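Practice problem: predict the structure.
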Amino acid sequence: MNQEQKAVNLDTPFESNLALKQGLEQADSQLFFIPFMTPDKFAEAIGLSKGVIGGWIDQGYLPTAKIGRYRMINMVILVANLKEGKVL
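Answer:
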């Protein structure tokens, strides 16, 4: 496991906030940006377990929106919050 992967595999929102912010800033700089993401895909993208992401959603750390019957992470709000320096 390389050092970058170790930095992302953390269990608390506070400790992984920096890694998450760096990853989202890279995504924001790309031409294409996904406004909503499933919790499963989000967990895969940042290298954390689905259970950790589900807990963050339940505790209100991640902004979500209900689209039909699906709960999605609102990436636009998440990126905006992180750019403003808000801690998860």
